[in-house]
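COMPLEX REQUEST
Ligand: NHX
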Amino acid sequence: MREKRKPWFIFFWISLFVIVFILFNSAHKQRNNETYLEYSQFKQYIKSGNISKVLVSSGVIKGQYRDNYGILRHFRTIPMNDPNLIKDMEDNKVLEFSSIEKNSWIGPILLNWGPIILLILFWLWMMKGMSGNGKHVLSFGKTRAKLVKNKTKKITFKDVAGCKEVKEELQEIVEFLKNSDKFQKLGGKIPKGVLLFGSPGTGKTLLAKAVAGEAGVPFFSSSGSEFVEMFVGVGASRIRDLFDRGRKFAPCLLFMDEIDAVGRHRFAGIGGGHDEREQTLNQLLVEMDGFNTKEGVILLAATNRPDVLDPALLRPGRFDRQIIVSNPDLIDREEILSVHSKDVKLNSDVSLKIIAKRTPGFVGADLANLINEAALLAARNGQNNVNMKNLEEAIDRILAGPQKKSRFISEKEKKIIAYHEAGHAIVAKLLPSTDPIHKVSIIPRGPALGYTLQLPENDKYLTSKSELLDILSVLLGGRISEELIFSEITTGSQNDILKATNIATKMVTEFGMSEKIGPIYLQQNPREDYFLGKDIVKGSKISSKTIEVIDEEIKNIIDTAKFKATNIIKQHINILNKIVDYLLERENLSGEDINKIVNGKELIPLSVST
Ligand code: NHX
Ligand code: ZN
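STATUS: Structure written out below.
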């Protein structure tokens, strides 16, 4: 153990030493005006008959004697190897003499020091609790990174569906880990750190495992949160330990998930920063600078919040490579679905291509969850395989929560819900720049009493201004429909209003879509984490006059969208009524059903019930 580098341990040992020292001292301390007598003096007193009482224990003799003035006093002396002591005492009329057990001094010590000992025990116990996992107290400065052994099944790039480009970029790291000596000879500079950016669930951890698996090197997995502790120095010490282990096992791959937990921008947030976290981050930077690329240790880190990372981490020589793991596209999703459904029996009606099409924005974890939910639904129904219906229900579950068919809803409210959803549906259908309707339902699901689901035809990365305006009209369509039919509005539209307000606000303050404001970024609190942080400076620069214009423009946009939606619904009130009738009859309508109704066709009558 390098004591110098572990202040925490030094403190621990020093305090232990001091406590033990005090304890021993106290055991031998003078008490009740005891006089210390030399052994020779003691013997003289015995011979002169001045000793009245003697208590012999190992290490000390105590007793009472009469001094020259005849006053009774307590004395203490150190025993010597003196076989004649008892005989002398008997000869000189020492009235009482006895010996006591060796360890009897523990009694008074416990009485005096018990509370302090208890305090220490409590402190140790606290430490133990804080370092978690019931590990030994003294190991709390150690990293908890686990050495992941791929003994049973080695994970390779083949097990990672999609992310083709990412795999290509990571291949370079694999090459280096595999042939670290070859690279060394050529004197090439090898990246020390690779940062993976991507939404949660995109498979960053899996990719890291696959890199280690491909290269056939040890893989240490840890999470940034493990390095954030209450006590200053603990996190830093763990970072050091992680790198020490890495060097021992080189060439190897260190993986740190959620690095934003330690790598957060310093001086952000209330109070200007966190001492412990800052120290941990500094230690990480020091280790990254310190270790030699020749050692063959590569740190792979993952985060979904690149914006909060301290810029120092991203400087050359630290995380040289930054790889973006994007959400899977259509083809990736199909691939991922087939990987996850490998061990699931699928009915012949299942088309993973269609499922992939219906799940834009889903990441790997969502898709795994989707397959699992579908399998559970199939099992619940007693089916022997998973069919398309199970998969569709699973999508809806993930998007909006489980159905609540048993919730009792009065006829009056059902009608309101039906008009609300029909309002969304008709506006969505009749406006030009909207996504096709997938499903309209008045069966409660999750927090919603009813819902209208639209799905884009293809993956989309950009949204135009007219599309946004149409989305706003669709969102407001539900409430407008309620208002037109019942001349009354309900509380149910709060979520629609929230979404509409958010979109309109972004249009004005982020997307530069307002004529009066122009292309100026005016978002005050772009991310909640910066609340009261460094961005308040930027945020407060917006003048109150501009804020007024922002509010005005947001209202303008909403009003325009509302006007458009109102016109559509007013002009097609008979279609609206028709959708509502069908909804009340069937509870669910597909996009195809809506198309037919809008085109004036009748729906195929239901054969049995729903
Ligand atoms: C309530 N729920 O809270 C009742 C139970 C207007 C026919 N008193 O707009 O269900 O009023 O188009 C995510 C998604 C709150 C979060 C939906 C939080 C809905 C939904 C309120 C339909 N469909 N509103 C809609 C609705 C409601 C709510 C949500 C959320 C209603 C409306 C919820
Ligand atoms: Zn709504």
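REMARKS: The first helix runs from residue 7 to 27. The first strand starts at residue 35 and ends at 36.
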